[in-house]
């Protein structure tokens, strides 16, 4: 692969997948079965007990399930590269590849799939942007939008579809304000970015791939125009901070890197938080005594949300690829092995969490989950995600203490290897 391919944000070539010799092989495991999509945890527990590391023939990945092994992989970025984390799981059809082959579609890998030493060089600028100061600037906006969305729900009356009424718009609008996009473009931006996860982590058919690829191209062009506008006229937003840093040292933070950070961030910070909010309601609302306790005492919210990240995380896996021959949990694996990190299996490990399949808003070590990863690629948006979810839950508890799930609804989960949250969630009050 040429260096420009290595640095490209979207690598659409998929490396050959062969099982490492001597490794236990599972012929059935895949994340696309109805039972996994409905509830992955019983199967993950069985697999972890049988063989903590195994090769999934259907996925073409070495699957790692124990917390200690997940931590080893996350921490050793020299052996386990993150360069595959934005690669599509399944081959991209020619028509979609042609769309992304447009000459001006050239975002570069900047964070999750960028390697050292560049990753640390770039991350220091983005971490400045996610500082406490910017969270303070953003907090009143998060409070205002949460309140407005709840008011709109109340005005319309229940039952209400929570994802479209609150869970999806809120994090989208927050990340767009954080970046600095114009509020008038919100609906357009949401429509361009909403189905993006299927492209990389799902198994969309050819027409869907083309549709998503066209939106990715439109969105990239929008980001480039936006950064060019901000280049001329700065504001109090994250993009302006990045451009100021670029001006101060253009060799250390390239202009194309600024464009690519803006492009990647809206996705990284949107759908996952939407799923986080839905999962929080799914966990808490059926346990009425917990919801009542939260309505009476908002100080219970932060730990309850950590328990949501442990028990029903919006991100149940992540990926790596080995740079060199190595071994894990006694299994030898050659360079080039694709690794599937089952965060969900680690988060439900009984040796670490008492009664792991019980949801407990007061669990003392809830924060020991691995849902934000670990090591140099630790989630950049963890602080923002926590702040958004806390304010959202606080606002819902204050305004709708009788909030409840609509009984007997069937939830649908989008088939993919990594993200988890219902497509729709009916609530009432
Ligand atoms: C509950 C919500 C979220 C979860 C569970 C989550 C989870 C993760 C995970 C597992 C990683 C990979 C860590 C690793 O490779 O070690 C990651 C990376 C990242 N996340 Fe999040 N994330 C969330 C919200 C957000 C938000 C709101 C943003 C941005 C606004 C964001 C931006 C990023 C970025 C930029 C990276 C790459 C960091 C790097 O490579 O240095 N995430 N996230």
Strand numbers in spatial order across the main sheet: 1-2-3-9-6-4
**Series of secondary-structure elements, N-terminal to C-terminal:** HEHHEEHEHHHEHHHHHHHHHHEEEEHHEE
* Superfamily (CATH H level) name: Cytochrome P450
Based on secondary structure, the structural category is: alpha+beta
Write the layout of secondary structure elements.
Blueprint lengths: L2 H5 L17 E2 L7 H5 L2 H10 L2 E4 L4 E4 L2 H9 L4 E2 L12 H7 L17 H12 L2 H25 L3 E2 H6 L1 H11 L6 H8 L2 H6 L4 H27 L5 H11 L6 H14 L2 H14 L3 H9 L4 H11 L5 E6 L3 E3 L2 E3 L4 E5 H5 L34 H18 L4 E2 L20 E3 L1
Parallel strand pairs: 1-2, 3-9
Antiparallel strand pairs: 2-3, 4-6, 5-11, 6-9, 7-8, 10-11
The protein binds protoporphyrin IX containing FE (HEM).
How would you characterize the overall build of this protein?
- This protein is an alpha+beta fold.
- The chain has a single domain, classed as Cytochrome p450.
- Helix content is 50%, strand content 8%.
- The protein has 19 helices and eleven strands.
- The chain has a six-stranded mixed β-sheet.
- A hairpin with a 2-residue loop joins β7 and β8.
- The radius of gyration is 21 Å and the shape is globular.
- The N terminus is likely disordered.
- Bound molecules: protoporphyrin IX containing FE (HEM).
- The site of protoporphyrin IX containing FE (HEM) has 28 residues, from α14, α15 and α19.
- The site of protoporphyrin IX containing FE has 28 residues, from α14, α15 and α19.
